[in-house]
Design goal:
Elements lengths: L1 E5 L5 H9 L4 E5 L3 H8 L10 H10 L3 E4 L7 E4 L15 H10 L8 E4 L7 H12 L16 E4 L9 H7 L2 E5 L2 H11 L7 E5 H32 L3 H8 L22 H8 L5 H28 L5 E4 L14 H12 L4 E4 L8 H4 L3 E3 L2 H4 L4 E4 L4 H4 L10 E4 L7
Parallel strand pairs: 1-2, 1-4, 2-3, 4-5, 5-6, 7-8, 9-10, 9-12, 10-11, 12-13
Antiparallel strand pairs: 6-7
Bound molecules: ligand SAJ.
């Protein structure tokens, strides 16, 4: 079997490498020429445990090749980003549409096309429309008819960054066919390496399922974040509260933090809200609660400085969007650190054990990247990420220092 995989980012590249290491010839496509060149050298342009070795071997064996354009294949998988349109919360599916247009000329009878990108409900049907417009010579899958030339399915990725190579194989997978036969064809493709269950449904349910999973997590984190605000006002330790409440056999509260980051949980719920704004009330409110948390954290710092009533240094511990990764994109810790550095120029230091230089968004701000020992001497210590390097130590602070522990790491 030969697959053409469009989009060689955090999902597309591991997926391409996984197929290639299971005997499938893979032609990977990306608009980023630099990424294409790196991959063709057997190297990777992203950080993911276990990925580098699999890519290296696949490229050496000639099973994985990257390019800036598509080619003929038995199956196509689209793994391109679906960001917001500008500064709105509306989904931008233009990369999916561009990928569909890129592969349309190469389609031939019997091909299966799979969309993996997180997408608003109805996007797979939009891809079918594009194929029908550009390839009137082919019968594209249609929900009312199981006889077709091109099979089309939506199969969301559900892997956790940092565990992708493991979860790709072991997670159950939702296979949403435009029609029944498309779900069967797509399931056959994933059966090459997936050990989890292949759960067949229609494309709209599969699209909604992906959005629902991440919204479920967002709503539950929002509940924990709201509790942290309430407990602060009522002078209750939220970490002790949650730990006690979680002893109830049917209660499992997640952890409050400085806000929700990454490209999934903080984004996907809006794809539901934008389709059904009058109905998605809890989902929209949860987004706003989580997005409001960084502002509350900054106010805690201002209160601490007012309490100390002197010129203060502030140490921000952790910049990544979650523990033990180097991914700083959409990280609330980066936003908080950036804003504090602007508000208190040359008073802010940051510690991030997983990077060696500040990201572009912080590079021109009046702050310094320092090591942990130096940071712990600051007047206000703001713990933002529960990295293992921070967990391993048990610092003792003097009475003239104030600790703001957004993860409950040193409080617990
Ligand atoms: N967070 C909290 N408190 C918690 C848990 C998480 O504040 O108790 C914060 C994290 O610090 C981080 C954010 O939420 O800023 C998101 O982290 P995460 O670990 O919950 O999720 P992601 O974004 O790394 O991956 C999620 C996963 N979805 C679910 O767990 C339902 C993953 O399985 C998906 O594949 C991924 O989104 C995706 O690509 O959609």
């Amino acid at each position: 079997m030969k697959l053409c995989i469009c989009g060689l980012g955090y999902i597309g590249l591991p997926t391409a490498a996984m197929f290639a290491s299971h005997g499938v010839e893979v032609h990977g496509v990306d608009v980023n020429k630099h990424a294409v060149d790196i991959i063709n050298q057997g190297k990777i342009h992203i950080v993911e445990p276990g990925l580098g070795e699999v890519v290296k071997q696949a490229v050496e064996k000639g099973m994985l090749k990257a390019s800036c354009s598509a080619c003929e294949a038995d199956g196509f998988i689209i793994c391109v980003p679906t960001p917001f349109k500008g500064s709105s919360h509306e989904p931008d599916i233009s990369y999916v549409e561009a990928a569909a247009k890129e592969i349309a000329p190469y389609l031939k009878k019997g091909n299966t096309v799979i969309l993996e990108s997180t997408s608003p409900v109805g996007t797979t049907e939009r891809v079918a429309e594009i194929f029908s417009e550009l390839r009137p010579d082919l019968a594209v899958a249609d929900e009312n008819n199981d006889v077709c030339d091109i099979y089309l399915a939506y199969c969301p990725e559900r892997v956790l960054p940092g565990r992708i190579m493991y979860e790709l194989i072991d997670n159950d997978r939702i296979i949403g066919g435009i029609n029944r036969v498309s779900a069967d064809m797509a399931a056959d493709i994933y059966a090459v390496f997936v050990k989890g269950e292949l759960l067949k449904t229609n494309s709209r349910t599969a699209e909604m399922s992906k959005l629902t999973e991440n919204s479920f997590r967002d709503v539950n984190i929002a509940f924990a974040n709201e509790l942290s605000l309430i407990c602060d006002r009522l002078n209750i330790d939220v970490w002790e509260l949650i730990s006690l409440a979680n002893h109830h056999p049917r209660v499992n509260i997640l952890n409050p933090g400085p806000g929700v980051g990454g490209h999934c949980i903080a984004v996907d719920p809006w794809f539901i809200v934008s389709k059904t704004p009058d109905l998605a009330k809890i989902i929209g409110t949860a987004r706003n609660v989580n997005d409001g948390k960084p502002e509350w954290v900054k106010q805690q710092v201002r209160n601490a400085i007012a309490k100390l009533n002197r010129h203060c240094t502030i140490a921000c511990l952790g910049l990544a969007f979650k523990p033990d990764i180097d991914d700083l994109r959409e990280s609330p810790s980066v936003f908080i650190t950036r804003d504090l550095a602007q508000e208190y120029p040359d008073c802010v230091v940051a510690v991030e054990p997983n990077i060696t230089e500040l990201p572009v968004s912080l590079a021109d701000k009046p702050l310094k990247l320092v090591d942990l020992d130096e940071a712990l001497k600051a007047d206000v210590i703001l713990l933002l990420v529960d990295h293992k390097e921070f967990k391993e130590i048990h610092p003792v602070f003097s009475d003239s220092q104030i600790l703001i522990d957004t993860r409950g790491l040193w409080k617990r």
